Structures are given as structure tokens and as C-alpha cells.
Amino acid sequence: MEKIHIVGVGPGSRNYLLPIALKAIEGSDTLLGSPRVLKMFSDMADKKTVTLSGSPSEALEIISKRGRNERLAVLVSGDPCFFSLGSSLAASLPEDQYEIIPGLSSISLAFSRLGISWQEGTFVSVHGRPLDSLNGLQKETGPIAILTGGLNNPMEVASKLLKIGASDRKCWTMSNLGTDDERVESTNLSDLSEEDRSSWPSLTLVLLEPLS
Ligand SMILES: C[S@@+](CC[C@H](N)C(=O)[O-])C[C@H]1O[C@@H](n2cnc3c(N)ncnc32)[C@H](O)[C@@H]1O
Question: End of a domain among 67, 85, 104?
Fold first, then answer.
């Protein structure tokens, strides 16, 4: 069987794609990924594409049905081992049947934009996870990056943080990083908790500056 490549495609544009990732994608017959990620490679007309919803079981089922010589690449946004499919696929596939190719995470780009170190950071996702995942963050003093998603938008995140006793820190909302629609805005938790926008871009994270 051909090795499956699990490829991180970076935050959202080919500018941030590693050359080794591009090589793996170009060498594949079939690309699996979300519609947004597949769109990044829509110029590769010779590839078969399969849309994924994001669940590991769905990806594994499609992988199990691949042809013997089919070269398959599972494309994920950012890095495959950061709140993504990488570790679940790795845990379920024989070691010699896959290779994970890292990608630039949205988090890495977010910290670069602000010039803040991330080695002391705390990273949490409420994308498809409960807001209670934020419990305990009020005790952290370093920078905190929170991946948002769906109903758990930046306003809800800020309200929850204030509710659990977080101090009113300076923070940033960062949307569509690395794309032409990138938007980075400075705020603080109390203002953000009242920012009742009708919608936020689906790719948005909140970065809380460290307490000085
Ligand atoms: C399922 S997680 C995947 C994270 C990805 N593996 C990574 O390394 O960035 C998706 C969440 O990451 C954040 N995200 C991903 N790409 C982004 C971007 N270009 N700009 C801002 N946030 C992004 C958003 O919070 C989004 O809801």
C-alpha cells in the first residue's frame, strides 16, 4: 500500500505552505479535506477530491476504502498535530502506513503578528468543544490563545473568561490570518464581551496578552 500523507497546509494561503507539503500534494492522486482547504488546490485539476467534515472516523473510513496503489493526501489546516486530525489518525493507522507533514499553525502566525513569545503560552480550543474548556484560565498569567468556532465566538469567550474571574486583559481578535482577508483588532475582555456582532469569520482566534 502507498503511504498516506497527512499534510498541514498552513493557515489559509499557499504562501505559508512548506515545499515538502506541496511535493506530497502534487504526488497524490486523491486529496481529502474540508471544502476551504481543497479550494487552495483547485488549480490541480488532475486530482480526485473528497470532502471531509472533520471527524476522524469519517476520514478513517474513506482511507480504509482506498485503492491499493492510490496515493492519498489528507489535507488539514494549520498543523496536523494541533487541535486537528493528526494524532487520531496516527493512533488508528499502522506506523508504516502514514507520514505526517507539519504545517504552520494559525497560532504561530498569530504570535508572529504581535511579536510576542509563545513558549510561556496556554492554548485552548472552544471550536466544537464546550466553553467550560476555558475553566482555570483565570489563573494563567502568560499569553493565552483560544481557537473559537460556531456559537463559541469571541464575545462568548470574553464573557466566559470574565465570569470565571479572569482579569480584564488586553487582547486581540485575529481572523483569516495569512489570507487576503486577514483582520487583526486590538481590544480588551470587557469591550469584547459586549461586542455583539451578527457573525464572526469562521477562522477567528482570540489572543490574550500576558499580564505584566
Ligand atoms: C480545528 S482548529 C484547527 C487548528 C489548526 N490545526 C492550526 O494549527 O491552526 C480550527 C480553528 O483554528 C483557528 N484558525 C485556523 N486557521 C486560522 C486563521 N487563518 N486565522 C485565524 N484563526 C484560524 C480558528 O479558531 C478555527 O476555528
Answer: 104
Condensed to tens digits (0 to 9), the pLDDT of residues 109-158 reads: 999 999 999 999 999 999 999 999 999 999 999 999 999 999 999 999 99
* Residue of the CA atom closest to atom 26 of ligand 1: 203
Last residue of a domain, one of 72, 104, 136: 104
Q: Whose CA is nearest to atom 12 of ligand 1?
A: 147
* 116 and 100 share one domain: no
- CA 176, 185, 153 angle in degrees (round to 5)? 65
Q: How many domains does the chain have?
A: 2
* Residue 75 to residue 85: CA distance in whole angstroms: 9
Cα 210 to Cα 212: distance, rounded to the nearest angstrom: 6
